[in-house]
Batch of 4 targets.
Target 1
Amino acid sequence: MTLQERFIKKIKYKNDCWLWSGVKDRNGYGCFYVKEQNGKYTHKRKYAHRISYEIYNGEFDKNMFVCHTCDTPSCVNPKHLFLGTPRDNFQDMFKKGRWKKPPVPNKGTSIILRMKNRIKELENIIIELKKEKKCLQEH
């Protein structure tokens, strides 16, 4: 059975979305295991929406995000998927009102420091987006 045949068996078609019926992560994104060239399954999880994008659109830069226009994590409809940078993904999420500032944990670890730095980066992006929005409204 081909990758595409295995993949299609896990899809439930609902309205315009193609919902993944296989294993999902805690955020609702579909997970899929792909055979390596040696015929063995990898133990590394691959996201179903990324596999869908590749099946229907061809190979892409693995550093790019595969984003959803429909904002449905389990959707694998290639017409609802687009490539973007991490910044594109955040801007899309922010513009649609889906971004929530993560809670700041206790001080003291390098993970916390990285999280604080990331929050600051995201806050700066929000400031830029608000300025762009204001500028567009003025013109």
Note: Strands lie at 11-14, 17-20, 31-32, 46-47, 65-68, 81-84.
Target 2
Amino acid sequence: MTFLTQANFPRLWLFFQNHIGGTKDKQVLALSARENRCKILEIGCSVGNIADAFRPLKNILYTGIDIDSSAIGTAHMRFTKTQFCFLETSVEEHAKSGMRYDYILIAGMLHHVDDATALSILKNTRLLAGQNTIVNIFDPTRLLAPILRTCTGFTSLNRGNTCGVSLC
């Protein structure tokens, strides 16, 4: 197991994400598709590095979920006295909550999991989506496109340097 990980050093990981990990670009992408949606879910939120983009916005309800307890702990410390909620939970467990969101973000995390886990995340994301939800998925890999095509419910796939999908 690697010693220098997000779980072991979440603040150091945040530093590197902010300086060489493309956080600013990810934040721009995250905001670009929101279309004034207010009930936001970020899957794989880590320490809240993408959530920072939503701080200046008024009247939003942001929920970030991640399975890494130390990352969620750091997110809690970074977002005290805000309307941001960070939960240590899996997508599968959160889908059982009955919550529905109008904007769901998966920002650069699917390439960290195997195909079966990615499919499970996508199928459970569908359960968290309302009727007119925008699901914004971007990941730095072209290998993601075939996985997304196999997941029912995703109706359009936009490709460029990153992959993006939307639900009907």
Note: Strands lie at 39-43, 61-66, 84-88, 101-107, 129-138, 154-159, 163-167.
Target 3
Amino acid sequence: MRAYINDEPVKIKTNSLSIEDEINHRSSASFSVRDYDNVYDFYKGNRVEIEDDGNLVFAGFIEEADKTPIGQGNQFFHQIVCTDLHYLADKRIVFLAAENRTAGAIAADVVDRFLEEEGVIRANKFIADYENELISDYENVVISELKRPDIDDGPVIEKFQANYVPATQVLDALAEQANFWWKIDYKGNF
């Protein structure tokens, strides 16, 4: 296993890594880093990626970082607790009103208007942009390899309003009304 914090490699202490990933729950990770020369300072909000043999198995942000001295030298252990990319939806404030739209259309609007700036995308929006030639940097992309399920429509919601609340709260309310669940995966796909 290999971890990166703010794109810098750090060595995970043996047997300290724990990753929790369940549907309808936030994913989390925790691990320890040994700091032999007191060179690391980790903070809430630092970006974290964890790979296993080059495959991304977790991406998120530090939620807690505790630094503990080892003996009387200049060495420390850092205990890192991370939350997944839902953090991006936590920090974005949404304001919108909709009438007679499907829950999926409202959720897509939230992603496109408020979360895309954070790097969260809908796969089919990328495909639609490519097919409309809005993405010119991807000349050799095979569209069939990119297609993934987009947001399901769900029921039509007569009236929906969000007045300056976190995107997480909006998406949770839509999911509850539609009896669906939502997730931002480790690559930033909604």
Note: The two ends are 26 Å apart (CA to CA).
Target 4
Amino acid sequence: QSVGLAVGASDQNGARTPWSNYGDWVSLLAPGGWSSDVCPELGVFSAIPANQTMFWDNGSCINTTAGAGSTRWGYAQGTSFSSPEVAGAAALAWSVNPELKNFQVATIMKESAARPAGTGWTPDGGWGVLDAAAAVELASRYDSVAPEATLTVPGPVSADPELEVSWSGSDAGFAGNPASGISSYELFYGVDGGELKSWLSSNKPRKARFKGRIGSRYAFVLRITDVNGNVTELRPVRVSLRPTKTKIVLRSGPGSVRAGTTFHLIGQVKALTPGGESAFAAGARLNVLARRVGAVGSLLLARGKVDANGRFDLVVRAPAAGRYELVVELPETRRLLGAYSPELALTSG
């Protein structure tokens, strides 16, 4: 992004004047001289000081004339005329589109400069000769509006370490004119309040999965840029990855059974933290415990697993004759907080 402009002088024919510098730094030319022999009679017509000065009245061939009263005018040459001409035209361009950034005004001055058809930048004349009218016209329809952006992250709390992150954007032009179009999406992330790091970039809306770690806090930032360099950066979207709280619900129980026979305990483990369902996909383990009424300690009657949806169907062998209280236990894991089902009365005879 070019902010400054290096301005050379052009003559009455639009060519670089012989005394104006040239090279790979030239941005554009603006009128500053008149092609002739040693003493040009014309150049840039300018108001000059009423009193005599060394520059205008040094006996050289500068063409001066007196106006009404004490006013004086003169023709002279120099890039000192060319540069303010570009500055003035830039101010006019900025006035018709106040939302323009400084580098966009510089771009407009170069893109609107007059040059032969089919040509581009040259070290002799830069992008061409200043065209103030064309600069103002281009500025009036130049997209200076920052695009709108959307970033979606599960949260603010999730128990699924694989976060689905999606992003999109839209672009609107200045004063109803066509937009320049979105050129890039950049995503950044930070962990536990640390410095933001680059994650990925894209040139279109999409979604991606971010692999986090349970117990950590993450911040995601989206930066979206359009073709004209207008940028929108969203405030961080934060999510904490935590083990899911769970609840065990029993759908059926035995009531009374014969000792030594088998029966089924059917139920479901419900995730109470958003995203916690994903923790069941690996097959969370369950224990069936029985405590004889009036006794101390528990018996392990069966083990099993939940399915990907948190459901279970456990086959349990009835203990020795007696009255028991049954519970289903979900041991705590890295991703699941432990839980117990409500107690279920069992009579084994």
Note: The CA atoms of residues 136 and 203 lie 31 Å apart.
